[in-house]
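To the wet lab folks,

You asked to see what we're planning to order before we commit. Fair enough. Below is the target structure as tokens, and below that is the sequence we designed to fit it. If anything looks off to you, flag it before the synthesis order goes out.
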């Protein structure tokens, strides 16, 4: 069994071999020699992190499901474009089934991450043990807990497997609350072994604090019992300068620049790269067909996603985020392309984006081509650099400092206190008036405006009891829509997943 696992690492011989002619050569690294150095220990977890790559796009659907099922973003049908079998409407209108693309792919993405972590942990347990290896094992356990956190957040009850070698072929689900308890225990056990700082794309002590804060913040949803004080305590581990190395950016757009890995607000992120770690194509999905002329793009965008008009209207006209996060109004070409007003390629009229989307399904019988093609503010939160390719190099923040400012404020308010101290720096930076006596409804709205298109909105609406209420082009639904169904393909393969624990 050991030989089987070490064969997978034969490539490391080439990467880390010496040039001494008297060096003994192996066709695989023997189990008593691997890992030989810190680099090889670090490389053990690489594949576990690569499973985050599909999160931002339709390969994995996590980001899309969190945003399009919320009140922030939608994928409107524009005439003959963007119908795609109704999958975008289903997600927005909460009419998905257990065989919808988003439901299917998101489940598969999470479990691929969990399985890879378990396989890696099994391998590490077979290796000669030392402090570095044990620390790496704990790191992978926390990363696995992150994948599991997304499972219970999106699907509720689920199996809990901590090994690949001895896992049952057809596991049963356990209660969401029991899975939650196991995750909290696992993460806390790992804390003493985790590095304080490392790459922002890696699990550290601080990203573990962030994960615990998120679990405790949503504990009432997951278990029926609130844990506001515990959530606030772990927020303190991130927001208090005496405890954490993060700081508030003076520029609210800094965490979303092309080179945003240097931002002092980012705690944990997916390190996308236009060439070497592809998968972040939000600009392609939202920009108008002719926006390539504005950004000197090497490819043409697809004219799809738009901001839900009622959400757009939550921004005050003086809010800097209104224009900083969104693209609307008359669009101009770059100097390379003449610098003039861009014309729509079909109507040949000036591309003047009305921020208020016409409808979720716009057809020529009821809408002009101008309305179909140009209405709806587009997502501009993540910098689109000049010469952008099909994939962006912006990292996608999973945990960011201002989120935990607002989380701390929420906990304080729910515990009977005042959260203004943590809300107002965010509002002041955005150019809007500070509040006195912030309410929970105000806080939820501010979370939307600040954390727009960062993958938090669905979870926030559920925690505040507002996910299933009626909204723009959406009817009210029942509480069963607070989670997605386990995909049909998964239950067909394992009928035990249909049995309630």
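Sequence we intend to order:
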């Amino acid at each position: 069994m050991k030989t089987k696992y070490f064969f997978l690492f034969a490539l490391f011989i080439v990467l880390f071999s010496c040039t001494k002619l008297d060096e003994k050569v192996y066709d695989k690294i023997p189990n008593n020699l691997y890992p030989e150095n810190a680099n090889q220990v670090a490389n053990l977890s690489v594949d576990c992190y690569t499973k985050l790559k599909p999160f931002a796009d339709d390969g994995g659907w996590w980001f899309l499901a969190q945003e399009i099922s919320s009140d922030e973003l939608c994928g409107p049908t524009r005439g003959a474009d963007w119908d795609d079998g109704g999958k975008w409407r289903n997600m927005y209108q909460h009419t998905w089934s257990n065989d919808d693309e988003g439901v299917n792919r998101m489940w598969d993405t999470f479990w691929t991450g969990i399985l890879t972590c378990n396989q890696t942990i099994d391998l590490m347990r077979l290796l000669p043990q030392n402090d570095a290896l044990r620390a790496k094992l704990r790191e992978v356990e926390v990363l696995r807990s992150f994948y599991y956190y997304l499972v219970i957040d999106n699907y509720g009850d689920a199996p809990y497997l901590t090994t690949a070698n001895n896992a049952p072929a057809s596991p049963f689900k356990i209660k969401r609350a029991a899975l939650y308890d196991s995750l909290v225990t696992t993460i806390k056990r790992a804390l003493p072994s985790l590095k304080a700082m490392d790459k922002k794309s890696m699990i550290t002590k601080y990203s573990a604090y962030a994960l615990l804060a998120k679990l405790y913040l949503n504990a009432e949803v997951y278990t029926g019992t609130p844990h506001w004080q515990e959530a606030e305590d772990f927020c303190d581990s991130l927001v208090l300068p005496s405890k954490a190395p993060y700081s508030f950016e003076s520029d609210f757009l800094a965490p979303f620049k092309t080179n945003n890995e240097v931002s002092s607000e980012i705690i944990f992120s997916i390190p996308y790269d236009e060439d070497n770690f592809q998968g972040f194509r939000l600009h392609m999905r939202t920009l108008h067909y002719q926006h390539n002329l504005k950004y000197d793009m090497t490819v043409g965008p697809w004219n799809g996603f738009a901001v839900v008009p009622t959400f757009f209207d939550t921004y005050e006209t003086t809010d800097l985020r209104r224009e900083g996060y969104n693209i609307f109004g008359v669009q101009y070409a770059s100097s390379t392309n003449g610098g003039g007003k861009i014309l729509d390629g079909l109507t040949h009229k000036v591309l003047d984006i009305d921020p208020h989307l016409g409808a979720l399904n716009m057809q020529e019988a009821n809408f002009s081509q101008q309305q179909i093609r140009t209405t709806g503010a587009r997502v501009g939160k993540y910098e689109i650099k000049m010469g952008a390719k099909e994939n962006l190099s912006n990292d996608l923040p999973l945990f960011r400092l201002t989120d935990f400012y607002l989380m701390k404020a929420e906990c304080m308010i729910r515990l009977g206190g005042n959260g203004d101290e943590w809300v107002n720096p965010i509002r002041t930076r955005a150019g809007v008036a500070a509040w006195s006596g912030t309410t929970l409804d105000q806080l939820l709205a501010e979370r939307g405006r600040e954390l727009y298109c960062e993958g938090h909105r669905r979870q926030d609406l559920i925690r505040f009891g507002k996910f299933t209420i009626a909204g723009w082009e959406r009817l009210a639904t029942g509480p069963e829509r607070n989670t997605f169904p386990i995909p049909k393909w998964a239950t067909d393969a394992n009928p035990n997943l249909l049995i309630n624990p």
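Structural context that might help your review: The chain has four domains: 1-34, 43-155+162-173, 195-269+397-467, 282-379. Residues 1-29 have pLDDT under 50 and may be disordered.

Thanks,
Computational group
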